[in-house]
């Protein structure tokens, strides 16, 4: 005969919960990084070694496009632009506070 005992919740997180917590942590860090980059001057090394600089604005939800202001290119300056992340090889921003 088995007793009708209520199930006791496990104190050990399941693998799924661990994955969810890790994703949540990484998502928060990514958003904090984007906030720290907002308004900072960024240097972009583009496809085929083209170097441009601009003020970092924001990005879309999928991180496919980056909105920048005052884009300086070898051919001139553009007040507002979208850069495709597929065309970017490297982004460098020197003014970010690592404690942010």
From TrEMBL:
InterPro entries: SMN_gemin7. It comes from the Eukaryota. It holds the Pfam family Gemin7. GO terms for biological process: spliceosomal snRNP assembly. One of its GO terms (cellular component) is SMN-Sm protein complex. This is Gem-associated protein 7-like isoform X2. It comes from Thrips palmi (Melon thrips).
């Amino acid at each position: 005969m088995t007793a009708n005992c209520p199930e006791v919740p496990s104190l050990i997180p399941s693998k799924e919960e661990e994955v969810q917590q890790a994703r949540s942590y990484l998502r928060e860090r990514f958003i904090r990084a984007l906030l720290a980059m907002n308004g900072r001057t960024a240097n972009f090394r583009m496809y085929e070694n083209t170097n441009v600089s601009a003020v970092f604005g924001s990005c879309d939800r999928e991180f496919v496009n980056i909105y920048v202001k005052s884009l300086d290119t070898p051919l001139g300056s553009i007040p507002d632009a979208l850069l495709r992340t597929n065309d970017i090889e490297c982004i460098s921003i020197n003014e970010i506070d690592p404690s942010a």
